[in-house]
Amino acid sequence: MFFYMPTKVYQEKDVVINKSEEWCILGNRALIVTGRSSARANGSLADVIAALTSNKKEYVIFSEIEENPSVDTVMRARDMGISNKVDFVIGIGGGSPLDAAKAIALMIFHSGKDKDYLYTKGSDEALPVVAIPTTCGTGSEVTPYSILTRTELLAKGSIPHKVFPRYALVDSKYLGYAPVSVLHNTAVDALAHFYESYINTNATDYSRMMVEKGLKVWARSKDVLEGKREVASSDLDNMMLASSMAGMAISMTGTSLPHGLSYPVTVRRGMPHGMGVGYFQAGYLREADKTDRDNVLKWSGFGDADELADFYSKVCTAEKLDEEILILSAEEILSNEMKLKNCPYIVDREKMLRIVGVN
Ligand code: NAP
Ligand code: ZN
């Protein structure tokens, strides 16, 4: 068995400011990496700037990370980092800026390499990364994964390099600014990480411990997602904590079939990540070992897979996907040994079509 979690995690209110003397020691000039607007709107960028300024650190800002970040955007940010001689990287936002920050930190460290290095096995050394999540889904602040889109290949996937952030600074106040759709989709992404980590060939007692506790934390705020009561600040705390715990679980196991199935759907149909992975959860669970399925459903507050499917259609309001993309996703994953390897049950074409909902 194996347990490795090198990221120092703080989850508390105003953590970016309150712990600034500690995390600002990482360097003298930071590259701050954000999406186009949310980090300005939810106060996270202002907190980072205040923290850096009070600790007499310099910074430059790259605020052009798009959803499902592309290799080309990563390379533009890397150029900015190199020309400004930065020595650490701060990612602020959802999974897109956080994943991009890791790849940028890798490519600044290996400044002599071109973009092919992203997909070449080699040294994982990177500049230190500080990750400040503002959504409650990816857990990227505690995972070593960086998932990038290769636009010209219509392909999305994890780079082979593993870059754990040095610090994860988790403050749920930023999540309070997220639109309902982002809150819902990302909470479903965290749920998917728990399910796919538990029902996974690589699952261990360590990873399953994280899933069991994390699903119970997630379930405390399930009724908020269903619109049964108003969101309280304790719900935002629960969702952020669950998201980080789910990230720790997939750091140990990886994800499984639904994540692989979702990538073509995101790239070709523009479906948001959480909505895409949520689409395949009920199908994935229905084919799994009964005891495993009953465990995860019970801990997350569902009676059976049909209840989960109802919850998903209410909370994510996804359009039904067309048969062409479902079959394409199924075929792609049937030829992806890495993803098939993580699934603990044998999947033939017929079973895969059942999982994606084509009968
Ligand atoms: P995202 O793509 O980072 O952001 C989605 C949207 O939410 C953007 O429009 C963003 O605006 C906005 N937003 C983010 N935080 C907000 C806040 N607090 N208030 C208001 N708006 C906010 O979404 P995500 O679902 O978190 O990340 C998805 C990406 O993560 C995918 O590429 C997925 O493959 C990857 N992922 C990574 C891992 C991992 O382990 N590394 C795991 C699962 C998924 P701005 O663009 O203006 O910021
Ligand atoms: Zn995910």
The low-pLDDT segments are: none
Q: Helix coverage percent of residues?
A: 40-55%
- Order of H and E elements: EHHEHHEHEHEEEEHHHHHHHHHHHH
Please state the average pLDDT score: 97
- Largest sheet: spatial strand order: 1-8-5-4-2-3
CATH superfamily of the largest domain: Dehydroquinate synthase-like - alpha domain
Whole-number radius of gyration?
19 Å
Return the CATH class of the largest domain. Answer: Mainly Alpha
Terminal CA distance: 39 Å
Q: What bound compounds does this protein have?
A: NADP nicotinamide-adenine-dinucleotide phosphate, zinc ion
| Spatial shape | globular
| Largest sheet features | 6 strands, parallel
Query: What is the CATH T-level topology of the largest domain?
Result: Dehydroquinate synthase-like, alpha domain
In DSSP terms (H or I, runs of 4 or more residues), the helix count works out at 18
